[in-house]
Amino acid sequence: MNLETNIQNSYQIRQSTFCKYVLVTPNKEIQLTFPQMLELRRKINGLTTINTLNKIINNENFVLLFVADKQHLIFLEIPQLLKLKEEIALFFLDFKPVLV
Amino acid sequence: MNTTAIRKQMSIHPDVMDLLNNQIGMEMKASASYLAMASWCDQRELLNSKAFFYKQAEEEREHAMKIFTFINDNGGAAISPNVTNVNNDFESLRGIYETGLEQEIAVTESIFKIFKSARKEGDLITEVFLQWFISEQSEEEDTFRSIIDVFDLMEGMPLKMIDERLPKE
């Protein structure tokens, strides 16, 4: 239960300015631009396909991921990886046109 | 999270962008495949066919580049694709054109899929962008079908003679 709560609170994405975002991890807050967000989304989506997840589980059981143009390295275990995927999916959800 | 913020950064839908990136890979694979076909024809002095496939290889790359710049121009992230497993081994000229037609049909189907997805997500920019591709694919398929018709009409004739009656582009 505690682990679940920790994971739920551990990875969050916040918008700081118009084109700056912050990825909150348990150890640090990482500033991200929008292109860096897109790159993170691509990497996480690539790591969370069924085949890749199976490979990770059968080998190291964790991933090391460069983010923000290789300025930061984050360590993710499977529950954290899935939580981050969920957070990114939520971030890109509801792609609504801007009402003018 | 203010979701309209994403729309301010990019004007195409993220899921549609993923499909467009897959399409870039497909077009580049088609380009590499046509290059292999051109080489096969070039080695056998099939002059019209080799010119046709060199041209096709260039065109497919142009299509890929069109999508590539479209994604970046609209705030997305275009991904340079991996192109692997290109077949260089063919059994006949007719077989090459039939493979080409199959390839074009697969590309058309894939564009239809993206078009439908763009429509579903309300991504009008991509929808309009893809209209050119749909017309282009219809022409491409027609070209290949016409060439295969020539093979049917000239069945039994020497390969070189058939090649001389095929279009160069």
Automatic annotation (TrEMBL), chain A:
Source species, domain of life: Bacteria
What protein am I looking at?
Answer: Uncharacterized protein
Organism (species): Seonamhaeicola sediminis
Phylogenetic placement of the source organism: Bacteria, Pseudomonadati, Bacteroidota, Flavobacteriia, Flavobacteriales
UniProtKB/TrEMBL annotation, chain B:
- EC top class named in words: oxidoreductase
Report the catalytic activity. 4 Fe(2+) + O2 + 6 H2O = 4 iron(III) oxide-hydroxide + 12 H(+)
Swiss-Prot/TrEMBL keywords? Cytoplasm, Iron, Iron storage, Metal-binding, Oxidoreductase
- What would be an example GO MF term here? oxidoreductase activity
Name a Pfam family for this protein: Ferritin
Domain Ferritin-like diiron, chain residue ranges per copy: 10-155
Q: What is its main location?
A: cytoplasm
The residues listed in the UniProt record as binding Fe cation, with positions renumbered to this chain, are 27, 60, 63, 104, 137
Which Gene3D superfamilies does the annotation name? 1.20.1260.10
Q: Where in the cell is it found?
A: Cytoplasm
What's the domain of life for this entry?
Bacteria
GO CC annotations on file: cytoplasm
- The record's EC number reads 1.16.3.2
The keyword Oxidoreductase belongs to this UniProt entry's keyword annotation: yes
Report if keyword Amino-acid biosynthesis is assigned.
no
A single BP term in Gene Ontology = intracellular iron ion homeostasis
Q: Which family does it belong to?
A: Belongs to the ferritin family. Prokaryotic subfamily.
> What is the annotated role of this protein in its UniProt record?
Iron-storage protein.
Q: What is this protein called?
A: Ferritin
Per the UniProt record, the source organism is Seonamhaeicola sediminis
